[in-house]
Amino acid sequence: MKGLYVHIPFCESICHYCDFVKRVPKNEQMIDDYLQRLTQEIASYSTHFSNIDTIYIGGGTPSMLSAKQLSVLFHALKDIHPVEYTIEVNPESYTEEKGELFKYYRINRVSLGVQTFDQDLLSYLNRKHTIDNVLRVIHHLKDLGIPRLSIDLIYAIPGQTLNMLDHDLAMIEKLGITHVSCYSLILEEKTYFYHQYLKGQFHQMDEDMEALMYERVMKTLKQQGFEHYEISNFAKEGHQSMHNNLYWTLQEYIGVGLGAHGFVDGYRTYNHRHLPEYMHDWMERKEQQTEEMLLTDDLLFGLRRIEGIDIKKIEERYHISIFDKYPSLIEKMSLGLIEMKEGRLRLTREGLFLGNQVFMVFV
Ligand code: SF4
Predict the structure, then answer these.
(1) For a substitution probing ligand 1, which of 10, 16, 18, 124 has the most ligand atoms within 8 Å of its CB?
(2) What is the per-residue pLDDT for 160?
(3) Would you list the domain boundaries of the chain?
(4) What is the model's pLDDT at position 363?
C-alpha cells in the first residue's frame, strides 16, 4: 500500500489551539500561485501514481478553496485511482457545488472538522461554523452518496462538562457517523491559548477530569458499536481510515505541499514549512532511514494501535530481542501500562491514558 498526502495550508481564520502549518492567505492570487506549485510537485511523483491506494487532502482547510481552485487540484490528481480518497472539510466553507465536485472526482471519504456540538465552546476555540452548518453539510454529503464520513472531536476544553461531552457523543450516533477522531485539547506553543496561558488567562482542564472524559469517550463509542482501533480513533466495522493505518504500520506515503512529510523508498522527506521557500524548492531535506530509526517508528506507531505490536514479526524483521533491547519495558509492564496478549505487546487501559510514559522507552 502507498498513500499520498496533499497539504492545503490556508485557513479563513486561526483557531486558538492550532499549531499546524497554516496561514490566512493574503488574497486569492496567493492560493492560485500555491496551487500552481503544488500541482508541479504532484506531477513530479507521476511514476508512483499507479501504486497509490489512498489520497488524503488535509490542511489547513482544503474546503476554503473556491470550486475553481478545487477543480485545479482534483484535476492534477485525476490519474490516480485510490481505494480511499479523503478530503478535510470545515463546515462553514462547504457549498453544494464543492460537494458535487467531490462526487465527480470520486472522493469517497470526508473528514469534517466539527470539534464540538456546543456553540459556546466553538466560539471559545475560535471556530467559525455553526451547528446548523454541520447538519447541512452532513445531510448534503449523504444525499450525494459520499459513503464514509468522519468527524473530528476535541474534549477537555476548558469550561466543557461531562454533559456537554455526552451531547457531542450522542450527536455522533444521531447523525450516523462511522468514524471519529477524538483528541484532548493540547496546549501547544505559538498558539493563542499558549499566550493566554503565559498571561495566566488560560487554565487547562484538570488531569483527572480529562481522564474521566477519555474514559467516557471510549465507553460511549463502544456502546454505539465503534471499534477503538488507535489511541484517538474509533470506527464502525469496515470504516477504519486506510490512510492513517498506512502511517501507523510504516507503509510508504508521499507528502506534497507546504510542510508535508513523506516516506518513500526508505527516505523520510520533509518539505519546507515557509511559503517563499516552498515556492522556490519544495523539499527541504530527505533522510535515509536506518534500521534503528525504522524500529523506533515501528514500535511507537504500533503501540498507538489498540491491537499493539506483533512481537515475533518485529524481532524477526530487526533481528533483536525486544526485552533485551528495551529492558525498561519490563518495568512498564509491572506498572500495568503495557501487556503481552497472544504474542502482541499493547497498551493496557491504564496505558492508554499514560502512553507517553511508555513511548519514552523508545526515544
Ligand atoms: S481550521 Fe484547522 S488548520 Fe485551520 S487554524 Fe483551525 S485547526 Fe488549524
Answers:
(1) 18
(2) 98
(3) 2-247, 291-363
(4) 86
- Report if pTM > 0.90: yes
Ligand 1 center–CA 22 separation, angstroms:
7
User: Residue 181 is placed in which grid cell?
Assistant: 477522531
| pLDDT score of 147 more than 90 | no
Report the distance separating Cα 230 and Cα 143, nearest Å: 30
Question: Atom 3 of ligand 1 has which residue's CA nearest to it?
Answer: 60
Q: Which pLDDT does position 102 carry in this prediction?
A: 98
* pLDDT band (50, 70, 90) for residue 347: very high
Summarised one tens digit per residue, pLDDT across range 303-327 is: 999 999 999 999 999 999 999 999 9
Going across the sheet that includes 344-347, the strands are: 309-310, 344-347, 338-341
- The matching CATH number, chosen from 2.60.40.10, 2.60.40.420, 2.60.40.1930, 3.20.20.70, for 2-247 is 3.20.20.70
Nearest to 8 by CA among 62, 50, 79, 82: 62
Over the chain, what is the mean pLDDT? 97
Question: What are the pocket residues of ligand 1 if the criterion is a CB atom closer than 6 Å to any ligand atom?
Answer: 11, 14-15, 18, 20, 22, 59-61, 90, 113
User: Which ligand 1 atom is at minimum distance from the Cα of 127?
Assistant: 6
Between CA 252 and CA 258, with CA 256 as vertex, the angle to 5 degrees is: 135
How far does the centroid of ligand 1 lie from the alpha carbon of residue 18, in Å?
6
Distance, CA of 9 to CA of 300 (rounded, Å): 27
What residue owns the CA closest to ligand 1's atom 8? 18
CATH code of the domain occupying 291-363? 1.10.10.920
Distances in whole angstroms, Cα of residue 241 to Cα of each of 84, 246, 264: 8, 9, 20
